[in-house]
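Why predict the complex rather than its parts? Because the way molecules touch one another can change local conformation, and only a joint prediction can capture that. The input here totals 393 residues.
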Amino acid sequence: MPLGNIFCNSMRSNSWLVIKLESDVIRGCRNIGRLFTAILMLMIAGCASSGVVKNITPISTAVFIVLDTALVETSSLVTDTSDAASLLNAMIISGLQESGKFGHVNGNIADASSSSGIKIQAEITDVFEVSDTGRILLGTFAGRARILAHVTVSDLKSGSQIVTFEAEGKSSAGTVFAGTTNEAIQRTAERVVAEVIKAIR
Amino acid sequence: MNLKKTVRFLHCVKTLLRLTTAILPLVFSMFLTGCASPAQPSAMIPTSFTVTKHHQGSVRVKVAGGNETNPLWVSDISCEDFSTALVAAMNRSALFQSVAENNTDYKLDVLLVKVMKPFAGFSMTVTIVSEWKLIRTHDSKVTADEFVTTDFTATVGDAFVAIKRVRLADEGAARANIAEGIRRLSELKLEN
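Output of the joint prediction:
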């Protein structure tokens, strides 16, 4: 083979190698860009946790509200959610105690039965649970934890209804860093406390 | 000669890109994880207290509901560590005349109902819900049953490594919880 041909073939194969390497480099840059975008999306995207109150009945003006005691009782209609119910109960009591609006706030009917005040009954009617493990494994696909509670506020002695409403708490969502059921419980408790304080004003 | 240099350069760039693609997730996961250490008792003692009223008598402290830290998971608060911090805080605040282990006038039962913490994130907020029950010893009367919810947020500025951030948030939330619990107890009107 003449020397010129060998040189030409070598140049041709080298050019092909350069083109291939260039396309590899471009592909590599694109991959890194995608990875950065994914990480960035993972960190900044998503939606915040929220709490809402729905189906509020008009506040009864017929009942004279005494603020000596507030008795909080929480139950759940959903199976295997007793932990959620007890945490919701603790957080409602905590919020009402912190508000300083009542003489005593407790969750023990025996302590409150002889007192005057109000009774807050929260009944969990719907739960969409997102556990820590679920959030870690599924990230955004684990969804948004949700707690729906039907709340009845009544007079402790007479049992006359003061107000009823539904409080809903949702966790943040959209990323692996988003909240879980605990966050939804927290938001629900905040809404219940805010609505009870509004009702006794 | 130039062609050879270009080929060698592109080879280098390609290798570098491959390495970066492989290392980046590792760096990211290192940023998120690490070896977890428990919340330190000394860091859970509040620096200042709001005490409305100092009470007569002695008190003993019992803490329940804490968890030991799993080094492969996240930082947690153990009963012993919270109790150590609480006893130190009770002594410093002088809420009661003395804190003892036996023959006391009151018994303070603190239950860590829930320690809520994030798995990951830049700003990490830990929320502690605790129940503080003060019982008069001679007749077992519950003189106070307070639910205390406090939180603390640790940022990247506080600690770059996520696992340390969780610990700092744990300690901060516990500090706030102890301070608020003592404040609430100091507002009680105890019959001596």
